[in-house]
Amino acid sequence: MIRVILPAHLRTLARVDGEVSLAVSAPVTIRTVLDALEARHPMLLGTIRDAVTGERRPFLRFFVCSEDWSHGAEDRPLPLPVCTGSEPLIVLGAIAGG
């Protein structure tokens, strides 16, 4: 099972508490995890990725094993700790302003 941690506003929208566990077929990538997340929680469609282009929303970041994967290819295979569920994929809401 893949573990996904969502920011509070997306947890509220999806009506979940804490992290989400998903069964994802190989290859496990950010794209396949987000596809599974949106299939299970269709109300998240268009909130993490643009519904038309599939591009990551500007104020959301993806962290994998304490590394920022936000600007990498969504089809890059996730590391083994994420695939085995020992580490989560973190979707983090970025903060902007001054």
Summarize the structure.
The chain has 98 residues and is of the alpha+beta class. The chain has helices at 8-14, 30-40, 80-83, and strands at residues 2-5, 20-22, 60-64, 67-68, 89-93.
Mind explaining what this structure looks like?
The model has no long low-confidence stretch (mean pLDDT 94). A hairpin with a 2-residue loop joins strand 3 and strand 4. This protein has a single domain, classed as Beta-grasp domain (Ubiquitin-like (UB roll)). Strands 2-1-5-3-4 form a five-stranded mixed beta sheet, with helices on one face. The chain is built from three helices and five strands; from the N terminus they run βαβαββαβ. The protein is 22% helix and 19% strand. With 98 residues, the protein is of the alpha+beta class.
CATH homology superfamily? Beta-grasp domain
CATH architecture: Roll
What is the average per-residue confidence, as pLDDT, rounded to a whole number? 94
- Helicity, in percent? 10-25%
End-to-end separation: 39 Å
Shape: globular
What's the helix count?
Answer: 3
- The top level CATH class name: Alpha Beta
